[in-house]
Design a protein that fits this description.
Residues about 205-215 have low confidence and may be disordered. The protein is about 50% helix and about 20% strand. α4 (about 155-170) runs antiparallel to α5 and α4 packs parallel to α6 (about 205-215). By secondary structure, it is α+β, with helices and mostly antiparallel strands. The strands form 2 sheets. It has a 5-stranded antiparallel beta sheet, with helices on one face. Strands 3-4-5-6-7 form a 5-stranded antiparallel beta sheet, with helices on one face.
């Protein structure tokens, strides 16, 4: 293998194409900061995609459920060992990603004789002060990006760019919790519809998806949303700075979500 490095490069390229194919049917994930914390939202069928990791850390995942569980367990273990050996304030998203899970995912991707992780993850960290939040997105090859206001997971980079652009256009700074719920759900619908259109066509998917936001009005978004969530569950979780106690994570119940969503979306989903 080392005598023929081009074969390794070819094998890595094949893995990348294989993994890209696995995410086409996945459900996008949206993370958005609001006036009291961070909101994470997706639409799932059966298996949960949003998890608590530590007091101020939450995880969203896209991919194979078994691989997501492996990553979640690794992050849980790292976070609690770090909190016990050092202090809870030392358990940060940056440390978990840069020195913990990203190198593991990268190694699994590059070891071509072993199975890679079929997973993309989004790690949200609620800052000690407003404006100090962190949103980290880790790709299946171990590369990661860090932001503060919003982040998404989707099947492809073009779809993710369109979703982020839509979030940046729609979200006031900072939105209320109700506004954030509505914006996040519309963004999910935009990304999910773009993924479906990219999967249905044999032409260049990147060209299709980059044109999507221009033609995606509210009516078509709501129509797609109504059809998509008919047999699924809207999953929403918060890192809420106003919540008492050390743990700031809480799942939003369907009843609470129904009260938070704007009336126009509530009518569509009713």
């Amino acid at each position: 293998m080392y005598e023929e490095p081009y074969k390794w490069v070819e094998a890595v390229g094949n893995r990348r194409r294989y993994l890209d194919e696995q995410f086409k049917q996945g459900s996008p994930i949206v993370a958005l900061t609001y006036d009291s914390g961070i909101l994470l939202l997706t639409v799932s069928k059966g298996t949960s995609k949003l998890y608590e990791i530590y007091d101020r850390l939450a995880l969203g995942g896209m991919g194979h459920p078994a691989d997501l569980e492996k990553i979640r367990f690794s992050l849980l273990e790292m976070a609690h060992v770090e909190g016990f050996n050092r202090s809870p304030s030392d358990v940060t998203g940056g440390r978990m990603v840069k020195y913990g899970i990203a190198p593991v995912i990268k190694q699994a991707f590059e070891e071509i004789f072993k199975a890679p992780f079929i997973a993309k993850i989004l790690l949200a960290e609620l800052g000690q002060k407003a404006g100090k939040n962190s949103l980290l997105v880790i790709n299946y090859d171990g590369t990661f990006e860090e932001g503060a206001q919003c982040a998404v997971l989707a099947a492809s980079k073009p779809v993710e760019r369109d979703m982020v652009a839509y979030l940046q256009q729609q979200a006031p700074t900072p939105p209320s919790l109700g506004q954030a719920c509505g914006i996040a759900l519309r963004t999910w619908a935009l990304g999910n519809r773009a993924q479906q259109k990219a999967g249905e066509t044999t032409s260049e998917p990147s060209q299709e998806t980059t044109q999507e936001p221009a033609s995606m009005d509210t009516t078509s978004l709501y129509a797609h949303l109504r059809d998509s969530v008919a047999d699924k569950t809207i999953e929403c979780a918060l890192l809420d700075r106003s919540q008492s106690g050390s743990s700031k994570y809480r799942a939003v119940t369907p009843g609470e979500l129904g009260r938070l969503l704007p009336k126009d979306i509530g009518i569509v989903l009713s």
